[in-house]
Specification:
The chain contains 15 helices and ten strands. By secondary structure, it is an alpha/beta fold.
């Protein structure tokens, strides 16, 4: 049991948490929230718990950061991947309440290509008990240890390597699961869908709703050559600007950890964007580089107390 989070989930502790969060805010500046999929009711409760901090756009908080102005008492909201289960409700709520919000859109995902992690999640659901042969060899997945080992190995490859390194193996496994009648093709390719490009085009007419770059293929930038990364940066910008008819100035690194980004990508990103956000935890005063901005990640498991506790991260 996570006693720290449990402690922050009662009314008295939330009161103390808000005091600590305000103190952190005064010492370490504002922050950027990072969502992927979030229940609309919980999203509203998070917004409520961070009061009286003021929500401003990502563009504004970045410009303040770059100009050396304070971000104390301010925060921005970002949402990665553009899931159908999340965006319509958030767009509606933020429009009604006049809340600026930024969505990071991976182009290939919008066009119908599943993210590799989604396929891996489905494989792990259906592979137990199966004997599968790939170029890596033949494995009996009756053993939970073999299932766990497969997940860890492919997960690591997805987060650090180009798709060409591992996608053939993923498709070999999927084909055998289908051929063995373990799962139907429909189910193995069932995943959380993105919103449509038409949806983004329509919503982007609202100045509060900003759609920014999350690359074309959602591959970790550490695995890409300079030419490959430049292509991802420039083409995703061009496509999104043509969809939204607005400037695309901000980039979100796929997966977002230092192990997924490396140390060379920032200079390349800086040639094409005003900032880049990560999944590195922290507040804005801890960031020296506007192309390695930290965020505070929140999920459906994060109650108001957990959200407060995460925001105290410096």
């Amino acid at each position: 049991m996570d006693y720290k989070h449990l402690l922050f989930d009662n009314a008295a502790s939330i009161g103390i948490g808000k005091i600590l969060a305000r103190q952190t805010d005064q010492k370490h500046g504002g922050f950027i929230l990072a969502y992927h999929q979030i229940n609309a009711h919980l999203f509203r409760s998070h917004i409520d718990i961070f009061k009286p901090s003021q929500i401003i756009s990502l563009d504004e908080i970045v410009q303040r950061k770059k100009a050396g102005k304070t971000t104390k008492g301010l925060y921005a909201i970002t949402v990665d991947d553009c899931y159908q289960s999340t965006l319509p409700d958030l767009c509606s709520h933020c429009s009604d309440k006049q809340i600026p919000i930024t969505f990071f859109a991976p182009i290939d995902f919008l066009k119908g290509k599943p993210l590799p992690g989604m396929l891996l999640k489905n494989i792990i659901q259906y592979i137990p008990g199966q004997r599968i042969k790939t170029n890596e060899g033949e494995t009996d997945f009756a053993s939970p240890d073999h299932v766990n080992a497969l997940y860890k190995r492919l997960h690591n490859l997805i987060y650090t390597e180009k798709e060409i390194i591992y996608m053939d193996e993923i498709h070999q496994i999927i084909r055998q699961l289908i051929d063995n009648k373990t799962v139907s093709e429909e189910l193995i390719f069932q995943y959380d869908q993105p919103v449509s490009i038409d949806f983004i085009a329509k919503q982007s007419k609202n100045e509060l709703l900003s759609f920014q770059s999350h690359s074309i293929t959602h591959q970790p930038v550490i695995a890409l050559s300079e030419n490959e990364l430049t292509k991802e940066l420039t083409e995703s910008k061009e496509i999104l600007e043509s969809i939204t008819n607005t400037k695309v100035n901000h980039f979100c690194y796929p997966y977002g950890g230092i192990q997924n980004i490396g140390t060379n990508a920032q200079k390349i990103v800086a040639k094409h964007y005003d900032s880049a956000v990560t999944m590195i935890k922290g507040r804005l005063d801890s960031a020296k580089d506007p192309f390695m901005l930290p965020r505070i990640d929140l999920y459906n498991k994060d109650s108001k107390g957990r959200a407060l506790l995460k925001s105290i991260k410096k």
